[in-house]
Amino acid sequence: MLNVAWDEKLLSRATVQLVQERTIELPDHHLEESLHQAYAYCTNLTSIHSKSFYMASGLLPAEKRKAIRALYAFCRTTDDIIDIQHHAGGSELNYWRDQSLSSKPRANDPVSMAWADTRQKFQIPVHFAHQLIDGVASDTYKRSYQTFEELTDYCYSVASTVGLMSMHIIGFSTDEAIRYAIKLGVALQLTNILRDIAEDYKIGRIYLPQDELHEFGITRNHFQEGIIDSRWRSIMKFQIERTRKIYEEAWPGIRILNQSGRLSIAAAATFYRGILDEIENNDYDIFSQRASVDKWRKLSMVPGLWMNYSLFNK
């Protein structure tokens, strides 16, 4: 059984007293044209960096679609500062925090412009954006996690916060949606972690809990030499089973979202969950091949989702 303590702990992080967002002042000069270009930039960035997110967000109404892609662009830029510019990540990230969360974004920064407009239109609590940046910043000094509970705290910061911000764009009927958004974020980030084990190890990060690595007899040789043996298969099976369980626990939350956004979120979760199937199909070898779900398989999933859609289209 899953330990529910981590779930309650993360819920408390999401429901702290939120600071009132300051009124955002967008530049007046050619505002409509500038915003159009800013949102177009974010859409293009999304299409380049995340085929799954781009396809899933395409199922949203136009206004929410461009807003969710502005959110993605904000998250992507935040993440890239650490992953691409890690040598100066701390100072760059502080500058980006000030710029991207400013109440007066610069007209020459399309991501900050679109993201500021989105925050204002959908009343997204800025607290979640700060938590995201704090989580990403932890990659500059934290390279491993001792326990699963500790890892879920990281997953909350870098992924559940995205779900909580997305929730305000999609719309939701009750605060119970918060718990489900947290769980879906954790499941999505765990999927990322399992897919990217080899890449993360190359830059000195091991996200799998240290106590579980010890329990399954996993050594650094497994990472260094890409060893796929019975011990490696066992720990990967365990990780995948737990992650699927969290997806299942998150799924009922889709019913609480605004009707216009349910199919999009269901698609995003299903596309990502498919990565776990691909890891299994590759015999848990994440060292020599990167598990991914191709475009045609994603398209083949949509009709089934649409039929399932009637289950939560109420």
Could you characterize what this model shows?
The chain is mostly helical. Helix content is 68%, strand content 0%. The protein is built from 15 helices and no strands. Helix 2 (31-49) packs across helix 4, helix 4 (62-83) packs antiparallel against helix 5 (89-100) and helix 8 crosses helix 9 (177-195). The longest helix has 23 residues, at 148-170.
Q: What Rg, in angstroms, do the CA atoms define?
A: 19 Å
- Biggest sheet features: none
Shape: globular
Structural class: mainly alpha
Helix count equals: 15
List keywords for this structure.
314 residues; single chain; mainly alpha
Topology:
Layout: H1 5-14, H2 31-49, H3 51-57, H4 62-83, H5 89-100, H6 110-122, H7 126-137, H8 148-170, H9 177-195, H10 197-202, H11 210-215, H12 220-225, H13 230-250, H14 259-281, H15 295-309
